[in-house]
Amino acid sequence: MPQMAPISWLLLFFFFTFSFLLFCSINYYSYMPSSPSSNELKNLNLNSMNWKW
User: Fold this and answer.
1) pTM over 0.85, yes/no
2) Up-side HSE of residue 11: CA atoms within 13 Å toward CB?
3) How far apart are alpha carbons 15 and 11 in whole angstroms?
């Protein structure tokens, strides 16, 4: 059964590490959160939370 040379394992490691980092960075920067509109900000319930210990 043929075995892979250590340099091949190292190249595979770098390839998958690079692809994982690229995938994570693309997912991180592709997310665009929607900013709340002024109507939504006015409708927020501003109850103060008084903790009673």
Assistant:
1) no
2) 5
3) 6
